Amino acid sequence: MVHLRLVETSMEFKPDQAAQKQDFRLILVDLAKSRDKQLFMQLYDYFAPRLKSFLVRKGANEELAEELVQETLLSVWRKTASYDPAKATASTWIFRIARNLWIDRLRKEKPDMLSPLNSYPEAGYTPSMAACDSGRLKDALGALPQQQAQLVYKVYYEGKSHREIAEDMDMPIGSVKSGLRLAFDKLRVRIGGES
Amino acid sequence: MNCNHHPDDSTLLSYGACSLPDALSMVVACHLAVCDHCHDKVADAEQIGFGLMEQEPVKSISKRSRDSMLAMLDEPVAEVCSETPIISDDLSDGDIPAPLRPMIGQWFSDLHWRTMAPGMKQFILPASQGKLRLLKIAPGTFMPSHGHSGSELTLVLKGSYSDELGRFSLGDVADVDPDMSHQPVADTHEGCICLIATDGPLRFKGLVPRLLQPFFQL
Fold first, then answer.
1. Which of A20, B77, B132, B146 is most exposed, with the fewest beta carbons within 10 Å of its own?
2. End-of-domain residue from the set A127, A152, A180
3. Considering only residues 26 to 85 of chain A, which have any Cβ-Cβ distance to chain B shorter than 8 Å?
4. How far apart, in whole angstroms, are the C-alpha atoms of residue B130 and residue B132?
């Protein structure tokens, strides 16, 4: 894990955030071996309220959201051995499990919506951004020109398609796409990925 | 696989954000199954999204849930692996891309293709947002020239085709700008099978294709 520590400490985090980020990655790695329940509950206390908020945003009601949070974190507890810190940050790994469970749930309730649901593989993609500090990300979003920030907001927070955004903002789809392209480039660069 | 044409970055961003209509998502998923280059971008898009969500105001969790979590940690792991059925994605087991297999099986030749026009057959797939279809074009056949009122993604699954934008072979995606009108033609002896997703009706040019539109169900 020596190499991992080097990577993490080379990022310019504020001290408290750095500690937090490092902890979650290493906690997951540690948990695979130690099976330490109290350590796991630290992770639970940080992620459960955030996952609940995420799922409610996706359209789950409070009760279902809480149920899926439980399922997600139980799955985290059971799958820690398959977590690879080189491939995903702790939050990416955990949020992805929550998202897939949510998609799974939709599939059971709406069988006619088959196609979206098969389309998100659980595959461990490797992000080019080393460890994405969400504070830095918010700053990067704030530094975008207003229209681009608005486009990104509509994609991530409102879940809108390019066509819906074009209608909302009364602009051609081609401009929606080019605005998003530029914004994506800048966010990746500011956060440490390649463009 | 080395693909020459990829989905636009804006499409990958929306895919990673889970905001792409499901018909379009399926095309991207099938492309990702063969393209590492786009994996990385999707991973970044996902990470941006999860990073933003992590910063959102939190929702409190009941103490009951917390206690029951702690209790569940001791439960033996019995039937955890039933989340997704295991479906072979081995190319020797079929020519249909893995993400589509749960819906339609392994082989294109087993599908009930419907003839739309001479040299052109289609197979419609379920989608809740947008339209998703497989299109089989005989060698040398031209698609009617068309533009779009929304997004269109086309992925080549067999053979190749050419249009005003270039030549598209196995694994390539055409992420067509809606303002662009194009007329694809299957350009090899084996013909061409494509997966096509649209988000908004196509606009055909010329009277005859327009009259055909209802039959194409486009």
1. B77
2. A127
3. 37, 40-41, 44-45, 48-50, 52-54, 56-58, 62, 65-66, 69-70, 73-75, 77-78
4. 7
C-beta atoms of B20 and A125 within 8 A: no
| Bridge partner list, B196 | B133, B154
pLDDT tens digits, residue range A87-97? Answer: 778 888 898 88
Predicted local confidence at residue B192, as pLDDT:
93
CA dihedral (A81, A86, A91, A97) in degrees, to 10, reads -50
Q: What is the DSSP letter of B188?
A: S
In this complex, the residue of A74, A137, A181 whose CB is nearest that of residue B48 is: A137
Q: Are B40 and A128 inside 8 Å of each other by CB?
A: yes
- Residue B14 corresponds to which amino acid? S
Question: B47 to chain A: which residues are within 8 Å by CB?
Answer: 88-89, 92, 127, 129, 132
Q: Which domain holds residue B48?
A: 1-54+95-218
The answer to whether B96 faces chain A, any CB pair under 8 Å, is: no
DSSP character at residue B58: P
ipTM of the complex: 0.81
- The alpha carbon of residue A195 is apart from the nearest alpha carbon of chain B, in Å, by 9
Quote the CA–CA distance of A41 and A96 in Å, as a whole number. Answer: 19
Q: Helix (H, G, I), strand (E, B), or coil: what is residue B144?
A: coil
Per-residue pLDDT at A184: 96
CATH of the domain at A145: 1.10.10.10
Q: Name chain B contacts of A132, Cβ cutoff 8 Å.
A: 47-48, 50-51
Half-sphere exposure at residue B159, Cβ-oriented, CA atoms within 13 angstroms: 22
Q: What percent of chain A is modeled with pLDDT above 70?
A: 72
Report d(CA B83, CA B69) in Å as an integer: 20
Asked which of A103, A127, A151 is the last residue of a domain, the reply is A127
Is residue A114 scored above 50 in pLDDT? Answer: no
Question: What's the number of domains chain A is made of?
Answer: 2
Give φ, ψ of B136 to 5 degrees: -115, 120
Considering only CB atoms, A66 lies closest to which of B45, B62, B100, namely B62
Q: Which amino acid is at B45?
A: A
Q: Is B67 on the interface with A (CB under 8 A)?
A: no
pTM check: above 0.95? no
Summarize pLDDT for B140-167 with one digit per residue, the tens: 888 777 666 788 899 999 999 998 889 9
